[in-house]
Predict the 3D structure of the following.
Amino acid sequence: MIWVTVPLGDRSYPVLVGDGVRAELASVLPAGTRRVAVVTQAHLGMTVDPGVEHRVFHIGDGEEHKTMGTVERLCSELAAWGLSRADCIVGLGGGLVTDVAGFTASVYHRGLPVVHVPTSLLGQIDAAIGGKTGVNLPEGKNLVGTYWQPSAVLCDTAVLATLPPREYRCGLGELAKYHWLGGGRLDDLPLDERVAACVRIKADVVASDEREGGRRAILNYGHTLAHAIETAGHHELRHGEAVAIGLVYAAELAHRLGRIDAAAVTEHRRVVGAYDLPSALPPGLSDDELLALFGRDKKATRQVTFVLDGPDGVEPVVGIDESDLRSTLDLIRGP
Ligand SMILES: NC(=O)c1ccc[n+]([C@@H]2O[C@H](COP(=O)([O-])OP(=O)(O)OC[C@H]3O[C@@H](n4cnc5c(N)ncnc54)[C@H](O)[C@@H]3O)[C@@H](O)[C@H]2O)c1
């Protein structure tokens, strides 16, 4: 079992990584927890034992269920059971479940503790770590949310065995970015150590910038193009796959701007290929459409911001010429 701490002063918390660590749930609950509401999805068929009285509450599968409606229904069910601030919520599932469980924990009774037991690779290396919660509106994804740090996170790598292969690959798309955020050759590590290395990087970034005022933006490496591809309506590509294409684009762009050498670009392409992820733009996306969407990325402030690798590592870069953005798109178009 690997133990990582997210260091946030009196809100610091442990992340346990390893085969079977969900059995540690009882030991990481806040002292004095009376009852536990386990929020999960029925089809997952997974259980946890909090060692105190508990009940299971199901939410639906798919982004269309990550809504205020789901949160309201869940809050009503918790109230009907009489859940109070002496109790705790456990989110057992992928990023959708931990986002809904975390958001609900932050608003129900003005906030009660939550422990996450992420079951997808993306959940373990990203969504469950760092305290961001969010639900979707018809107007867009994750438009309503809170910062609400969990009391603990249990990344049980045994549960990843049942993750559908495409979901696993999508997690790898997000994992790939950590290679350039200090992770190095993560693909050489056994699974537990690889997950723990990503958790350590995310913990470190979150600790230095909990509310995304600056450094946390580097976690968006590869995401500007990814968001543009997704917004342009290419939903046949999943988020992690779009991020992989975005990482290759960011590498080619950094090379064009003289920030990294050709070998670094080759390494980006190698990692994306090694994870069996796409590196070419899907057909049918025009430069004009993508450039317009770069400008609308919600993480961009005034002008187009790209998170790029460079001599000082990965960092946000502003003021890139449109001609460089355009000609780099040619380098990632398929044959
Ligand atoms: N809060 C954050 O910081 C943050 C960061 C990244 C992503 N997210 C959010 O996370 C969500 C995506 O997370 P995701 O990729 O885990 O999607 P998801 O939670 O929808 O899970 C994908 C699918 O895999 C299933 N699944 C999960 N674990 C499984 C397992 N062990 N075995 C079998 N099936 C399993 C789920 O039921 C679902 O059908 C998005 O809503 C995104 O906005 C949040």
Q: What stands out?
A: The chain has a mean pLDDT of 95.
